[in-house]
Write a structure and sequence with these properties.
By secondary structure, the chain is an alpha/beta fold. The protein has helices spanning about 20-30, 80-85, 105-120, 210-220, 260-275, 280-285, 290-295, 300-315, 320-335, 385-390, 430-435, 440-455, and strands at about 10-15, 35-40, 125-130, 135-140, 145-150, 155-160, 160-165, 175, 180-185, 200-205, 225-230, 335-350, 350-355, 360-365, 370, 410-415, 420-425. The protein folds into three domains: about 10-170 and about 380-455, FAD/NAD(P)-binding domain (3-Layer(bba) Sandwich), CATH 3.50.50; about 180-240 and about 320-370, FAD/NAD(P)-binding domain, CATH 3.50.50.60; about 260-315, no CATH class. Strands 8, 9, 10, 11, 12, 13, 14 and 15 form an eight-stranded mixed β-sheet that branches. The radius of gyration is 23 Å and the shape is globular.
């Protein structure tokens, strides 16, 4: 790969070019004032979009309004302005609704991120951005510098490293599947359901946002066969609302422990609804305080939250557009989509055996396809680079096995107990420290603070 011939004052390597990597690159470019080289690595060679925004389908929508999707913490209208000034977005905008209120197709957001990286590359007077389609599989040290080692054994020296790895793939099925059944293991292979015949019975494992993507794809290709979706609780993401009564949440209103969160939310939601408001406003107001609440909660409390409250938190926190929720209800009402609460025991000779929740009987279902939509695995960081760092003590998993153990700015904790001065992460791999760090608003805030730290501006 070609880097600048002169040695820059500083060189930062960012591994992963989805939203997290793009956001850090953009924050560095925006606040940096001295010669800097940023090298953004992406093994797929697709820079900017990441898995979530790589779908080619216009019916896969953002799950939040455009007004909340800016890359920049200090310019909240940046994405809305991009939508209003790019003709490619025009056919997908609703002229009857203000742009900032719309839930636009996710591929438009991928185009926005790609366009932003092109702008950063073009403006290279102070910060030079290099895009490298290499997979980094290891990191060594040479003096004070980190040396990134690619799969083809190329060695790239950098001063700082950011692991912008994004979400993990779902875990493997916890049950056996006979070879007569076709499997789609990666829910982000968005065109894979095209192989499904129109009347084939389909079993989807999981009932969250990935399941909704799969159902939408099947619906828009005129699928006629039955669709079964199974999860432990059988809960679906709830919908957004047009009710706009703001809720002011002060820090001293917060519960002191996570175990009190459910009761706290029910009580405040009831009062707010009586005043003409909506529970969604309380969830939105709470988001910014979740990292502090998570940090001061005990390990046992966090573990209890993950075991018992997580499914309920997810359906309230990760919501969908109302028209998507309405379509799911339409498919359920006509009997094509069936949502089941239970556990799949095995799939043998095209018969899925499902142990239904709160029932003693086992439900047999004939299926030809099974799609893994169990959601990103919280504890499966199997990338060769991650395994190398863990095996050599350059990184530790957090106590709940949710991701890396990190400092408040995302520095990786080493087996020595010290935090690294050169290795950092953000987004989902830092979930153990902040919990809520997988969505755009949280990651852009992380990226801004991390950029300041990397440039010694904090």
């Amino acid at each position: 790969m070609e880097l600048s011939e002169h040695k820059p004052v500083h060189r930062i390597g960012i591994i992963g070019a989805g939203f997290s990597g793009t956001a850090v690159s953009a924050a560095l470019h925006r606040i940096n004032r001295h010669p800097l080289e940023v090298v953004l690595f992406e093994k797929r060679g697709c820079f900017g979009a990441g898995d979530a925004y790589s779908t080619p389908f216009p019916f896969h929508l953002l799950n939040v309004r455009a007004q909340d999707m800016s890359v920049f913490e200090d310019e909240k209208e940046h994405f809305v302005n991009w939508l209003n000034t790019h003709s490619a977005a025009t056919p997908f905008l609703d002229r009857t609704l203000a742009c900032h209120e719309q839930f636009v197709p996710r591929f438009l957001y991928g185009s926005y991120l790609k366009d932003l990286l092109m702008q950063i590359q073009a403006d290279s007077a102070v910060t030079r951005l290099t895009l490298s389609p290499h997979e980094i599989v290891d990191i060594a040290y040479s003096g004070s510098q980190a040396v990134l080692i690619s799969k083809n054994n190329e060695r790239i020296p950098v001063d700082k490293v950011v692991l912008a790895l994004g979400n993990n793939l779902p875990a493997a099925f916890p049950f056996s599947v006979s070879e007569e059944v076709n499997c789609i293991h990666n829910p982000w292979e968005y065109t894979a359901p095209r192989r499904i015949e129109k009347k084939d019975p389909v079993l989807i494992v999981g009932t969250g946002l990935s399941m909704i993507d799969a159902v939408l794809t099947l619906y828009h290709q005129d699928h006629q066969g039955p669709i079964y979706a199974v999860s432990r609780h059988g809960l679906l993401p709830l919908s957004h609302s047009d009710v706009k009564v703001p809720y002011l949440l002060m820090q001293d209103h917060l519960p002191h422990q996570l175990r009190m969160l459910s009761m706290h939310l029910r009580s405040r939601s009831k009062n707010h609804i009586n005043e003409g408001g909506d529970w969604r406003s309380i969830i939105n107001a709470l988001r910014g305080y979740i990292p502090a609440l998570w940090e001061r909660s005990s390990l046992a409390d966090k573990s209890r939250f993950l075991r018992h409250l997580l499914p309920y938190w997810n359906i309230h926190r990760h919501r969908v557009h109302k028209k998507v929720a309405d379509l799911l209800m339409q498919l359920r009402n006509r009997g094509q989509l069936k949502i089941l609460a239970g556990r799949i025991l095995e799939i043998e000779k095209r018969i899925a055996k499902i142990k239904l929740r709160h029932k003693n009987n086992i439900l047999p279902l004939e299926v030809k396809w099974v799609i893994n939509c169990m959601g990103p695995s919280l504890s499966s960081m199997q990338q060769p680079l991650v395994q190398s760092l863990l095996s050599r003590g350059m990184a530790l998993m957090d106590p709940l096995d949710l991701g890396f153990a990190v400092s408040s700015v995302g520095a990786l904790k080493e087996t020595s107990g010290h935090f690294s001065s050169s290795l950092y992460t953000l987004g989902p791999p830092a979930r153990g420290a902040a919990w809520e760090c997988s969505a755009v608003p949280e990651i852009r805030k992380q990226s801004f603070h991390l950029a300041k730290h990397l440039l010694n501006m904090d």
